[in-house]
Amino acid sequence: MSQSPEEEKPLAAAPSSSISSHYQICIKCCGCFAAVFLIAITTALILTFTIFRVRDPVLTADFHIRGVGERLESGFIPSNIVHGTTLNLTFEASLSVRNPNLAHFMIRHAALLVYYHGQLVGQAEPSSVEEVVPARASLTMNMSADITVERDDGILIFYTNTKINGVVRISSVSMRHITLNTNCSVYVNISSSSSLIQQQNCTGRAFLK
């Protein structure tokens, strides 16, 4: 019995092996892209919370009182700084700026204001216009203001405001502007036998933009 041509023609094999191989390649490629994406996200998060995170610099102030051209000794007021009922004094401030960041803190402007009885009696700026506080380091700045105040046999209470403006440059295209503001109350006893500045209290804040 002869077979028909249709019965003699063999069935074509299903291309299952080629489809399976193509599917595996797609799975591997997707896995590689996902791994690279996760690594990039993880790296970005680490940089954001370490290098790119800007922390507040810390400003501290220490004050001293001098006579014009002569230091005030304990319990003694030189005659050259006394004129009737007024005192001519030099208000000195030693400012320390600590930078906790991994990038430099560039100081663009600094100013000291001294108030007595609510009136501005003196102001000062550093001799250098710009200063750089290295990463994770400190910088000391000195400023002085000559002031004239009414003589008082008791304690002289001064209020100071110190403001520093600067930037932390994270990269060539990214920076954060920072303003450090410190207010102090300084108690001076010109008739003291131990220390002229008997007490100073300071509070400070940092503002990031």
Written account of the structure:
There is one protein chain. This protein is an alpha+beta fold and 209 residues long. 18% of the residues lie in helices and 49% in strands. The protein is built from 2 helices and 10 strands. The protein has helices at 5-8, 16-49; strands spanning 58-67, 82-83, 86-99, 105-116, 119-124, 131-133, 137-150, 155-169, 175-189, 197-208. Strands 4, 5, 6, 8, 9 and 10 form a 6-stranded antiparallel β-sheet that branches. Strands 1, 2, 3 and 7 form a 4-stranded antiparallel β-sheet that branches. It is rod-shaped and about 105 Å long. The relative contact order is 0.17. Mean pLDDT is 79; it is low at 68-76 and 79-83.
Helical content stands at: 10-25%
Q: What's the story with the biggest beta sheet? A: 6 strands, antiparallel
Write down the overall mean pLDDT: 79
Count, helices: 2
Shape: rod-shaped
Contiguous low-pLDDT stretches (5 residues minimum) are 68-76, 79-83
Q: How many angstroms separate the termini?
A: 96 Å
* Residue share in β-strands: over 45%
Radius of gyration over all CA atoms, rounded: 36 Å
* Structural class by SSE content: alpha+beta
DSSP, total strands: 10
Query: What is the N-to-C order of secondary-structure elements (H for helix, E for strand)?
Result: HHEEEEEEEEEE
What are the defining features of this structure?
6-stranded antiparallel β-sheet, alpha+beta, 4-stranded antiparallel β-sheet, 209 residues, 49% strand, 2 helices, 10 strands
How do you describe this structure in short?
The chain has helices spanning 5-8, 16-49; strands at residues 58-67, 82-83, 86-99, 105-116, 119-124, 131-133, 137-150, 155-169, 175-189, 197-208. It is an alpha+beta fold. Strand 4 (105-116) and strand 5 (119-124) form a beta hairpin.
